[in-house]
Write a structure and sequence with these properties.
Blueprint: H1 2-17, E1 21-25, E2 31-34, E3 43-45, H2 57-106, E4 109-111, E5 117-119, H3 122-139
Antiparallel strand pairs: 1-2, 1-3, 4-5
Helix pairs in contact: 2-3
Length: 142
């Protein structure tokens, strides 16, 4: 019995690789297996290869579900990150608008592109103040 067990253990790897398997019994009554047909009468045995581990339909479907879930979670994380970046940018714009408004309230002189002061008309001052206040009201939460 042990001899047949060892024979089968050593034969298993070749069974998986062999496409045809032949079985015959010799004159002493021993059963033989081979991947080559013997010269005398033999029986061809069909061996079905076992499915590869982790390659069946259920595993494939499970992997597809996991990939869809992972993709959806990544997309959600990306959207949250983008919303946070937009909120940070909006906050920075609001802070800059508040600083601009403080500058306008402190003095009515403007600085041109050459860093020189010039007097602004009251109309321009009023229009600029109104424009910045409207922008802050529309875009900022304070």
């Amino acid at each position: 019995m042990l001899r047949y067990s060892l024979f089968i253990i050593f034969l298993l790897p070749s069974l998986v690789l062999a496409t045809d398997l032949y079985r015959w019994t010799d004159e002493n009554g021993r059963v033989h297996f081979s991947d080559r047909a013997p010269e005398h009468e033999s029986e061809q045995v069909k061996v079905k290869a076992p499915p590869l581990i982790g390659q069946d339909e259920a595993v494939r479907q499970s992997n597809e579900r996991w990939q869809r879930l992972n993709s959806a979670e990544q997309q959600q994380r990306d959207e949250v990150s983008q919303q946070q970046q937009q909120a940070e940018q909006q906050q920075a714009h609001c802070e800059q608008a508040a600083r601009d408004l403080e500058k306008i309230d402190q003095a009515i002189s403007y600085i041109d592109e050459h860093d020189e002061d010039y007097e602004a008309s009251m109309q321009r001052f009023t229009a600029d103040t109104k424009r910045i206040n409207q922008w802050i009201a529309a875009n900022c939460s304070y």
